[in-house]
Amino acid sequence: MTPTFETVIRGGRVVTADGIRTADLGLRDGRIAAIARDLPRCDTEIAARDRLVLPGGVDPHAHIEQLSGMGVMNADTFETATRSAATGGTTTVISFAAQKTGERLRDAVADYAARAERGAAIDHAFHIMVTDLSVPGFTEDLKALAAEGHRSIKVFTTYNIRLADRQILDVMAAAKEAGALVCVHAETDALLSWTKERLLAAGHTRPEHHALSHPRLAEIDAVERMCRFAEFLGQPVMLFHISTAEGVEAVRRAKARGAPVRAETCPHYLFMTADVLKRDGLEGAKWMCSPPQRTAADQEALWAGLADGTLDLVSSDHAPYRFDDTGKLRAGPGSSFDRIANGLPGLETRLPLLFDAMVSKGRLRAEAFASLTATAPARLYGLAGKGEIAEGFDADLVIWDPDRRVTYGADDLHDNVGYNPWTGTTVTGWPETVLLRGEVIVRDGEYRGTPGAGRAVPRPAPGVTAVAPPAEEVRFLEDNA
Ligand code: DUC
Ligand code: ZN
Ligand code: ZN
Question: Who surrounds ion ligand 2 at CB < 5 A?
């Protein structure tokens, strides 16, 4: 007789959308088959007494095995990034399929998908990073890829891979037809480049000047404009990595108007200020990211945005570069801030840092932690079967020790970055055992995953649906198409 369940997770405090309750989880065929008390015994029993059982983390914004706009390769491959993610309790990641100039979109996606299939130890999906609209078959590829489940697109308003506003409208209109979410790195390029040139000309070249080179008005201006574009077309837009209080407020106002916008922030904006860049020599480069860390007042505004639903989720924006001549110091030990790759690792630390701040320190409840780190990203990006503990969902689970205190050391992460930006930070609460579709990939903190065992996640429908645009002109066009 076949056993009722392949695995039972016994007696944990299970965090579901409805609250927390003590129950067993019965797993079968990689899915959650039952949530109930006193399930029958089976061959594989995992004890979860005094533990929380949480949905596996869904990190919807990570750069993996990708060439940056500056031409620097990420330190992490799919193998090392997903090893790191898994150890930190994350079981699904969305990274980027970055289009090279002249490359067809479908070729970019095929390239990244093949590499993820070989290396990824957790489940995965891609944002199609659009940089060149002039390639053959652009719109047809976008529609075909969305129908295959690649239902999010990333565009930049700045850097050498930026699109002009007019092109962003074209991408948003195409995404609306295709049924895809448009994610935006929203900082106004003119404000960044104008400020950067003057800083450098005046000899202000150190990592701490990087923060000044990203005026907060650049974020405010671009976030407001992208919200208006979303509203104009009725096309869902995700504002990436909101860092300022005014950015939060712009999203709040746009949502109040009914604009189909969503927004995220990241741990380095919630827990760090621009002071991290003020270290001796080039040391501050380890913390350089864009937008940069801001102020304590901004942190409070971000927390308020998470509490009232203005901000929908927290991603890592994992962007791994080693602190050597392959990464941050590629332009030499005396390089000015504009020649240093932006980004810091975060896949492994996102969940422990947020659990500590939200649950252990009491800012938010465990249900909100699960929602902001797993359920909301899974729903907004249309990741079928992910992000929730409910019957029929994938058995992607984390058995979480809420009491374990850990102080991060300098080289205790499982990525390929070689430094830990959170060295010396103490967290309470730790991912002990992690399951991916019912298989243990981390046991008692020890990584047991397999490169290539991760699967592409189906995304049969957009997570956020388009709305009727308030703009009369667009309504006219849509009615008379
Ligand atoms: N900023 C981004 O927008 N992406 C990657 C890294 C960074 O700092
Ligand atoms: Zn960005
Ligand atoms: Zn990013």
Answer: 185
